[in-house]
Every structure is written in C-alpha cells, then in structure tokens.
C-alpha cells in the first residue's frame, strides 16, 4: 500500500521552513541589504558605513547564506533518515530568497502546512518575535494566496540538550587544542549579540520579570562551562559579554562589550581568553568580523592569547537537535502528549508564544505562531 502523507513521520507537516536573517552575497548588495535591515531604526549613517566596511573586508559576501544552504542540506538528510519525505524550504528576512517568495512557491506546490525553524536560539524581539512578524507580513502580502497556509514554529531552543551539547563539544575541542593552558590566567567569555537594554528588559512572556534573553544565555553558558569541567577536568572562570552593538550611542545596550572586557582582563593579569559565541548558531559576519577580526585584534594589542570556539553550524548534534524539535512540534500538532527535552529544570519556552511576549517596542505588528 502506498504511504499516505498522513503517515509521514512529520505529519501533519508538508514541509519544514528554515527562516533566517539573510546577508549580501556581492559588493553591490551590501548597502541595499543594510538599508533593509535598518529601515525605520535609529541607526546612525556612520554606523551603516562602518558595517559596510565589515562586509567589504570579506569581498562583499556574508557567509550566512552558504551556511544556511549547508544547514538545509544537513536537515534534509537527517529528516529523510528518520523516515519522513518532507522537503526543507528556506526563506530570509533581509535577502534573497525572501520569505514571502518562499511561501508563495510553497503554496503553489501544495505545501500548505509548514513547521518553521528559526536560526536563532534565544527569546528576544530580534531573535523570536521579529521572525514571527516576518511570517505575518509575508502571509499578509500574499493575501488570499496564503489563506490556506498553516504555519507553526519550533520553540526557542537555547536550553535544548542538543544545543547545549554541541556548544559543549566545540568548547572541549577548542580548550583541548590550546597548548600549556593555565586555568588561573584564562577566562571563558560567552558572547552574544548586544541588544538595547529595553529589549532585554521586555524579553519573555510578559507575565514574568523580563530579561529572559540574558537569563537564557547565563543558563546555557553555565551548563556548557560545567560540561567542560566534567569532560576535561578543567574549570574555567566564565562570564557573558556582548558584541555588535549598533543603535544610537544615547540608547543603553547590553554591556560589557567583548573588546572592552578583554582590555580589562589583560590589566587584571588574564593571559588567554576562550571566546565562545553561544548566542549565534553559525559563524556569520558578527562572528568572523566582530570576533575573529576585531576582538582578536584587541587581544593581540594587549598581549592576550585568543581562542575562538566554533558555533553550532552543521554539527550533527545540532542538526539532530533541530530535527528532534521538529518531531516534537509535529507530535504537539497531532495532539500527542509531549515532554519537551530541556537541559535544566528552568523555564521551558512554548512553541506558541504568549500574547505580548518579547514585544515590538516601536510599533505593534501582527505576528504568527503566538496567542496574539
Ligand atoms: C539578537 C540579534 C541577533 C541574533 C539572533 C538572530 O540571528 O536573528 C542578530 C543576528 C544578526 N544580525 C545580523 C546583521 C545585522 N544586525 C544589525 C542590527 C541589529 N541586530 C540586532 C540584534 C540581533 N541581530 C539589533 C537589536 C540590531 C539593531 C537594529 C534592529 O533593531 O534591527 C545590522 C545593522 C547594522 C548594525 O550592525 O548596526 C546588521 C547588518 C546578522 C547577519 C550576519 C551576516 O550578514 O552574516 C545576524 C545573523
Ligand atoms: Fe544583528
């Protein structure tokens, strides 16, 4: 008997949609991309010109799209290996393939029930709700052509055991490769994207205290540092620092900046920094420029050894974790009892966001995959 679509291991879904930030792939795409990213934002023109030079250092091409092509292929292989025939589609917020075009094409092919995987692990407006707004804007633009689409999303996965495991694995490999490591003069710096303080203050379901963005990073970082100690016997003092601040200098953003902190640590006698960008899922521009170029240069200047830990990328532990999350979401959609996998006993984010969580502080906009 032929296999019916309802018997697919990922039923009721017809496709998985990888949803990401996007990036330029040629010099002439850099400024249009940056204008798209910052439209309606309080970002000074000088900052845009400065960020454009980051892209031009790399030939005008961000690594992010190639990384997503590789992740897409790895997800397809893993999904097929677990007995599902659903394809993986890809859409971006800020560059081709734009998510609106992806949804239009999906609809035309009869792929109506989609499970979204966002390339951001943490709860915040930028990392979660803004992607949900992108989906709402895309379906709105398609109008009647999107009327029969069902779009669900996996939950924020910073505390998923697989995400913790891949970051631990990469940290262990990096630390074991550092010659003559002296833990007493080494600091482990977990790094993430800075955001305005107001964005962190309001991150989370709204009925809590906010600050879920920072809280999740602290929890993930603590587990990863513990994992290092358990696996290698090396305990490193660790802390959370931030990169890639933009916005107006008058607006407070999360600190300390990774560069400032490396300078301070050097003055305190630290000789080696291990820089682990747990806030990102691939080695995109914020990593290869803001950390591997700029923070490395700072470390060189103050004579501190710099070791950077790879991000999750396409490591099998990460790919398996994302596919586990899609299976979990599919079971939830089939009304089965689901016990979400979680690396600690703390707050587990739902796949359907609470009304008003991680709010857009500039304008109220419709968002999918939530109760508002
Ligand atoms: C939390 C967060 C993530 C992680 C979650 C996620 O992954 O979504 C993230 C990822 C990324 N951010 C990226 C690039 C940029 N972010 C900018 C600006 C901003 N980011 C913000 C936050 C975040 N950003 C914020 C609050 C702004 C201010 C303007 C605004 O409120 O929107 C700007 C404008 C110029 C500038 O830097 O000022 C650029 C170019 C790229 C692409 C890299 C590549 O090309 O390889 C990626 C993956
Ligand atoms: Fe950003």
Automatic annotation (TrEMBL):
Recorded catalytic activity of this chain's protein: Fe-coproporphyrin III + 2 H(+) = coproporphyrin III + Fe(2+)
Main enzyme class: lyase
Residues that, per the record, bind Fe(2+): 193, 286
Pfam families the UniProt entry points to: Ferrochelatase
Keywords, in A-Z order: Cytoplasm, Heme biosynthesis, Iron, Lyase, Metal-binding, Porphyrin biosynthesis
Any Gene Ontology CC annotation: cytoplasm
Recorded family membership: Belongs to the ferrochelatase family.
HAMAP family registered for this protein in UniProt: Ferrochelatase
NCBIfam families xrefs: PRK00035.2-1
Name the record gives this protein: Coproporphyrin III ferrochelatase
Organism of origin: Knoellia locipacati
């Amino acid at each position: 008997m032929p296999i019916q679509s309802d018997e697919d291991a990922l039923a009721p879904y017809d496709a998985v949609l990888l949803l990401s930030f996007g990036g330029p792939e040629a010099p002439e795409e850099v400024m249009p991309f940056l204008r798209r990213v910052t439209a309606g934002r309080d970002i000074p023109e000088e900052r845009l010109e400065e960020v454009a030079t980051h892209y031009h250092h790399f030939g005008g091409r961000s690594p992010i799209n190639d990384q997503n092509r590789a992740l897409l292929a790895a997800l397809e292989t893993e999904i097929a290996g677990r007995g599902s025939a659903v394809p993986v589609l890809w859409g971006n917020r800020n560059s081709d393939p734009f998510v609106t075009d992806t949804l239009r094409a999906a609809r035309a092919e009869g792929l109506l029930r989609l499970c979204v995987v966002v390339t951001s692990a943490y709860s915040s407006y930028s990392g979660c709700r803004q992607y949900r707004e992108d989906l709402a804007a895309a379906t709105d633009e398609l109008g009647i052509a999107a009327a029969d689409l069902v779009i669900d999303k996996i939950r924020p996965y910073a505390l998923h055991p697989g995400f913790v495991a891949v970051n631990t694995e990469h940290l262990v490999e990096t630390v074991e490769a550092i010659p003559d490591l002296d833990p007493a003069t080494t600091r482990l710096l977990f790094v993430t994207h800075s955001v305005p303080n107001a964005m962190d203050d309001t991150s989370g379901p709204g009925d809590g205290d906010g600050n879920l963005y920072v809280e999740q990073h602290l929890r993930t970082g603590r587990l990863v540092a513990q994992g290092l100690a358990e696996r290698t016997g090396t305990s490193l003092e660790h802390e959370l620092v931030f990169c890639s601040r933009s916005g107006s200098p008058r607006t407070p953003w999360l600190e300390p900046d990774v560069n400032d902190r490396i300078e301070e640590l050097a003055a305190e006698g630290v000789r080696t920094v291990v820089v682990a960008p747990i806030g990102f899922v691939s080695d995109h521009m914020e990593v290869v420029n803001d950390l591997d170029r700029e923070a490395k240069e700072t470390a060189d200047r103050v004579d501190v050894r710099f070791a950077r830990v790879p991000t999750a990328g396409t490591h099998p532990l990460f790919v398996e974790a994302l596919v586990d999350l899609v299976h979990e979401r599919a079971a939830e959609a089939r009304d089965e009892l689901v016990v979400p996998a979680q690396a600690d006993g703390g707050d587990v984010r739902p796949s359907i966001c609470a009304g008003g969580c991680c709010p857009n502080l500039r304008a109220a906009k419709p968002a999918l995959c939530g109760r508002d």
